Amino acid sequence: MVAAFLFINSNSNIYLYNFKEYTQFLITRMDVQVITPIGGIKLGLGNNSPIGETKPGDITPIPDAPCNPKIIDLAHWAVDEYNKENKTSLKFKNVICAAKQEVSGTMYYITLEAVNGCLIGVYEAKVWVQPCSKSKKLVEFKHIRPCA
User: Fold this and answer.
1) What is the 3-state secondary structure (H, E, C) of 4-34?
2) Based on the domain organization, do 78 and 126 belong to the same domain?
């Protein structure tokens, strides 16, 4: 399985990002309604919205997630929080991809790799950040699959 998702920029160009090979492809023509990356997160472009337009509550990809310091910090925090809550010792490795949804703050959907002993696995974390109260909450953290 390849970690990839579509991204539409402000000029309505559609790009396919493949994070396994760190490549990007411009897609010239496509009718997109729903995109499903690793873990089954559905990324909507808005019901009947023109391509590139999103509505409040839509889940949108974060194209630079693997190198975005804010997303890396959130992913690292999610692993640490999971370890505290479950008395485990996962070690954060890297971010594969991420998306966000504006819902009374921001819900981040982060797909990441973490090491458990000597095994690398792919995990999905849902982190809810509320800037007005300066709080964050680990909503969900689950193992998706072993690393390929």
Assistant:
1) EEEEECCCCCEEEEECCCCEEEEECCCCCCE
2) yes
